[in-house]
Design brief:
single chain, 143 residues, mainly alpha, three-stranded antiparallel β-sheet, 48% helix, 10% strand, globular
Length: 143
């Protein structure tokens, strides 16, 4: 599962860097092919990001929970993802053994609602499956 986040983050970074003028590109880890982000740029140079998590436990977890998707706004999810990614990166830089990758999540990039929702839910899945809180008390503050 640690590798999934590592590859997702690498894919986010690559998708962000490669998004200018790219019609369609899928980024996968060449060793496992586990995670990818597809970005699509149209003539108007608008970019769409898609987070793909190849951890079957995540899809089951997300489907088995009763989250009300419309309780979040895209701006709220961006704020949450920014805070979670800052904490994730802090833990990565201090050598936390559970976190093996860096997330290049920019609050200035306009990710769509589906991307933000799925990334936020992945943070929650990671917390629940590893029995840790990335941001202590965050669930109580942010919901």
């Amino acid at each position: 599962m640690k590798r999934i986040i590592e590859f997702a983050i690498a894919a986010i970074i690559l998708a962000t860097v490669l998004s200018c003028g790219v019609s369609q590109r899928e980024v996968k880890d060449s060793r496992t092919g586990r995670v990818g982000i597809r970005d699509t740029a149209s003539v108007k140079d608008s970019t769409e990001y898609e987070l793909i998590v190849f951890d079957p436990g995540f899809d089951y977890w997300l489907a088995s929970k009763s989250f009300y998707k419309n309780q979040y706004s895209n701006e709220h999810l961006q704020m949450l993802n920014h805070q979670y990614s800052l904490e994730w990166n802090r833990r990565y830089s201090t050598g936390d053994r559970l976190i093996e990758s860096y997330i290049d999540y920019s609050p200035l990039t306009k990710y769509d609602f589906e991307f933000n929702y799925k990334l936020y839910m992945y943070f929650r899945y990671f917390e629940e499956s590893n029995k840790i809180e990335l941001i202590p008390g965050a669930k109580r503050r942010f919901l």
